[in-house]
Write a structure and sequence with these properties.
The protein is mainly α and about 625 residues long. It is built from 20 helices and four strands.
Length: about 625
């Protein structure tokens, strides 16, 4: 209830304050805007109404949460409060930045001799409008910034506040980076247009707006990026998931942009060399500027991402993160090769049956060829690295073969191949049946060959990825069998042969190579031949009340215990669901197998009646959608 209450009060305070400040801004703008003389009454009424309505709403909710924060440290350091304070500071400062950008854009346009209305940001505003917004938002920023500072000084704020502050830093960094990227790309485009097409007009407008974006965005990005870099001395900042996710996303985005740009450039080169097409500098310059900026960004971020991955203390987790990066780029390259090959074959067959197959424009076939050629290096480089890692013997290779990223990659292309075969095969069968039943199908041979070409590529992709998946399975099976063989298990029981048989049966199904021995404690403690067991499995009755000889033997046993819960009078197993002997034996067998294979132990939960009913309902809804 407290969380819901906090969300309500802080949300209403945020809405009330935003309406209030923009009502005040409207009042100030009216004082200096001479164009509103004829419509002054309506403008004053509107802005004053918003101000008068928003003020009590804001004060009611804000003063309530302030009172709660003074009385209770839990309220003062709640996550909702941190999100409100940092969020409202961002909401107040971004309009300040935007209005400064508007002033700078109009000033630069004036220097370039262009009308101020051509500004991308604030073209329809004047200086009074911008100054009013800057003044009011800055006053609000100073007030809430002071509130935030006092909260930080009043005591250790807790993890929620640290996380929100981190989020705020990355929001500002991304905001500045976005403006810097747009501005620098357009600036470089203008420079290239000026060099290659000096007679082209209309560049002053783009240059002024792009320069203003760069002059505002670049320092903003550098400021917050350096602040983030300075915070990395704290382990929680250096190892934060947010930092790793943003670096990862930006690096992947940059690499994919380079792939697309490379395909466009290669296509242009092929058109010039093979098709005799003239060089289109006006469109090519934009592509070159995009590739140059994102290439520089990728070069810098790739090194930063490697450093961030290297700081991860868990070596296997660090390798897993790097593996995701490789598989994403390998997937992009593989998809480009796959689509390029199919489209090139389809166009090739089309041209083969055309009357002038060597004549005409080659743009329709050179585009897929360029896609294939640019995607091939991506695929080969990153896939071969991933393939080599998966072929390693030992723990690293085992983790690589069983990794989720590899499984998603392989199954994704298996899915794509099967769907492609379904589409091409369906079209082929349709055309053949249509020829037999209806007759008169035009271009039957060419259309059939096109579908067969698509089927050939899709089936090749399917066969290769299934083969790779099976190779992984064979490696994994051999590794798991070796681990199971080296993990002898000892079952302790008190003459309960049924219990032993259920456990043996369950283990025989999922871990047939795991050595299993059983010992009846009625015959005394296990002898020395059984002390080499890596784990023991025993019912809870023996674990709670072992005979003296067994107790002494258990005290000297250094392996792992797997205790099977049993119903006993006066004994309640909190958090443990008691099941039938067969179910309990299967669960115990799964636990032993996970221990043998070096996995973390995960228990299975029985689905509730409501869950089962939910699945049934979902299935019925899905059936209705399909029908």
């Amino acid at each position: 209830m407290k969380t819901v209450r906090r969300i309500y009060f802080y949300l209403m305070a945020l809405i009330g304050f935003q309406v209030l400040i923009w009502g005040i801004i409207g009042q100030i703008r009216i004082l200096f805007d001479t164009s509103l003389v004829g419509n002054l009454g309506a403008q004053v009424s509107r802005s004053l109404a918003w101000t008068l309505v928003a003020l009590p709403i804001f004060l009611l909710h804000w003063l309530t949460v302030q009172r709660d924060a003074r009385r209770d440290s839990e309220e003062r350091f709640s996550r909702e409060r941190s999100l409100f304070l940092y969020g409202i500071l961002i909401g107040l400062m971004i309009p300040v930045v935007q209005n400064v950008l508007a002033i700078l854009s109009r000033a630069l346009l004036g220097l370039f001799g262009v009308e101020s209305s051509a500004a991308w940001i604030g073209g329809g505003q004047n200086l009074a409008d911008n100054l009013a917004a800057i003044l009011v938002n800055l006053l609000g920023f100073l007030y809430f910034g002071r509130v935030l500072q006092r909260d930080w000084q009043s005591g250790p704020p807790g993890e929620a506040w640290v996380e929100t502050r981190r989020l705020q830093r990355y929001v500002w960094m991304l905001y500045g980076l976005g403006m810097a990227l747009i501005g620098s790309i357009r600036l470089l485009d203008v420079l290239l247009q000026f060099i290659t097409l000096p007679h082209l007009g209309g560049l002053s407008n783009i240059a002024a707006n792009a320069l203003s974006l760069t002059l505002i965005g670049l320092p903003l990005w550098i400021l917050w990026w350096l602040r983030i870099q300075r915070s990395l001395g704290q382990p929680e900042e250096a190892l934060s998931l947010l930092r790793l996710s943003i670096l990862f996303s930006l690096t992947i985005l940059s690499a994919l942009t380079i792939l697309v740009v490379g395909g466009v450039l290669l296509n242009q080169v092929l058109l010039i060399v093979l098709d005799g097409e003239k060089l289109d500098w006006e469109s090519l310059n934009g592509v070159l500027s995009l590739g140059a900026v994102f290439g520089a960004l990728w070069f810098y971020l790739r090194r930063t991402l490697k450093q961030a991955i290297a700081t991860i203390p868990d070596g296997l987790r660090a390798v897993a993160v790097a593996r995701i990066y490789r598989y994403l780029l390998a997937a992009a390259g593989c998809l480009a090769v796959y689509l390029g090959m199919i489209l090139a074959l389809l166009e090739g067959v089309e041209r083969l049956f055309a009357s002038n197959w060597l004549g005409g424009s080659l743009s329709s076939i050179l585009g897929p060829i360029a896609m294939l050629l640019i995607g091939l290096p991506y695929w080969l480089v990153f896939w071969m690295r991933s393939r080599a890692e998966a072929q390693h013997e030992g723990e690293l290779g085992d983790h690589a073969r069983r990794s989720l990223s590899r499984r998603i990659y392989l199954y994704a292309f298996i899915l794509i191949s099967v769907l492609s075969m379904l589409g091409f095969g369906g079209q082929l069968v349709f055309r053949l049946l249509n020829q037999v039943l209806a007759g008169g199908t035009e271009n039957l041979l060419s259309e059939s060959l096109k579908m067969l070409s698509g089927l050939l590529v899709a089936s090749t992709w399917l066969a290769y990825h299934i083969y790779t998946l099976r190779q992984d399975s064979r490696h994994a099976l051999r590794t798991l069998q070796e681990r199971q063989t080296g993990f002898p298990l000892l079952i302790l029981h008190a003459g309960d042969e049924t219990f032993v048989q259920e456990i043996r049966t369950a283990l025989g199904r999922i871990a047939p190579t795991l050595p299993v021995a059983a010992h009846d404690i009625n015959l005394g403690a296990p002898d020395e031949a059984l002390t080499g067991a890596r784990a023991i499995l025993l019912p809870s009755s023996l674990a709670l009340h072992p005979p003296e000889a067994l107790r002494l033997w258990l005290n000297g046993f250094s392996g792992q215990w797997v205790i099977v819960p049993q119903a006993q009078a006066g004994r309640i197993w909190s958090g443990v669901e008691l099941r039938s002997l067969g179910q309990t034996a299967r669960e115990a067998a799964r636990t032993v197998t996970q221990l043998a294979e070096g996995q973390s132990v995960r228990t299975t939960k029985t689905a509730s009646v409501w869950t089962i009913l939910g699945y049934i309902l979902l299935g019925l809804v899905g059936l209705q959608v399909l029908l």
